[in-house]
From TrEMBL:
Keywords: DNA-binding, Transcription, Transcription regulation. Signal peptide: none annotated. This is AraC-like DNA-binding protein. It comes from Sphingobacterium yanglingense. The keyword DNA-binding applies. Residues 185-284 form the HTH araC/xylS-type domain.
Length: 289
């Protein structure tokens, strides 16, 4: 896919750049960039979309996104526990420039880790919290101490390379024009912003100036799923967040809050996507917590 191309701030001849997010929301446009991205969520809950899949995220999560992997972070704006701005630290790594270090024998473990970064990953929470200091130190250190901190982070990621969950969606790589990429980004953003409202294919098609028939073919061609399937996945992901965070006392209320008008239909779609009923999902995650 070729969504909006994001250009990382200039970082001279260096191999990495650090960016701190402290604002109302993340850069919630479906985008990609040439650099690998390592993100630590210090504060905020929401949904990450990587390629063709969606997952919830929360404070303490670490994501490693491979170069040119289309992705988008979107904050849960209705989360009353996370008042104020989100806070995240992103590290962008130029893998092409990193090759200058590959000939160093002591760098072999990190080199293998970077060369084998074939899918984006989410670190297990059992190890992610122990890595926070690398990110915060990178925000305050300069020069050589900052570079050694960066190398220490890469080494820690390499050591824990098996303590991850893959974010591979199984979708083939598809290249298309910037115009089509911008359209996909518009559709995704509109859906995330209005998932709890009545949304029709006709509405979404008009946003990208297409007929409903042309839009349905366009969306299926670039995402391998229908728009309604995608909309249902977004809504179920939001419903899961509502149920886990106990924002609703009743399953029916969670269904309505996430955009469904019919509880029976909600239960059917929920089970189809999560492979379990809402009640079983609540029970399972209550045990996990």
């Amino acid at each position: 896919m070729k969504p909006i191309q994001f250009t990382v701030s200039v970082y001279g001849e260096g191999v990495f750049a650090v960016m701190e997010d402290k604002k109302e929301n993340f850069y919630n446009y479906y985008h990609r960039h040439d650099e690998a991205q390592i993100t630590y969520i210090l504060k905020g809950k929401g949904t990450i979309m990587v390629g063709n899949i969606m997952q919830s995220f929360q404070s303490g999560d670490i994501f490693v996104l491979k170069p040119n992997e289309p992705h988008m972070f979107d904050r849960d704006m209705e989360d009353e526990e996370e008042i104020g701005d989100i806070h995240a630290i992103h590290i962008f790594v130029n893998l092409e420039r990193m090759k200058k270090l590959y000939h160093i024998p002591d760098f072999e473990l990190v080199k293998d880790y970077l060369l084998e970064l074939d899918t984006s990953k989410r670190l297990d929470r059992s190890v992610s919290e122990s890595m926070m200091h690398y990110f915060t130190n990178l925000m305050v250190k300069t020069s050589m101490p900052r570079f050694t901190e960066f190398l220490s982070l890469l080494y820690a990621l390499a050591i824990h390379r098996h303590d991850v969950s893959s974010l591979y969606s199984g979708v083939r790589n598809v290249t298309y024009s910037d115009k089509d990429g911008a359209r996909i980004s518009q559709v995704y953003k509109y859906t995330f912003d209005h998932y709890n409202e009545d949304i029709t294919v006709e509405q979404v098609a008009s946003i990208v100036h297409m007929t409903p028939t042309s839009f349905c073919k366009f969306f299926k061609r670039h995402t391998t799923k229908t728009y309604i399937s995608f909309l249902n996945e977004v809504r179920i992901e939001k419903a899961c967040q509502i149920l886990i965070d106990n924002k609703s006392e009743h399953i029916a209320e969670a269904a309505f809050q996430s955009g469904f008008n019919n509880v029976v239909h909600f239960n059917r779609v929920f089970k189809s996507i999560t492979k379990m009923s809402p009640r079983k999902y609540i029970a399972q995650h209550s045990v996990d917590i």
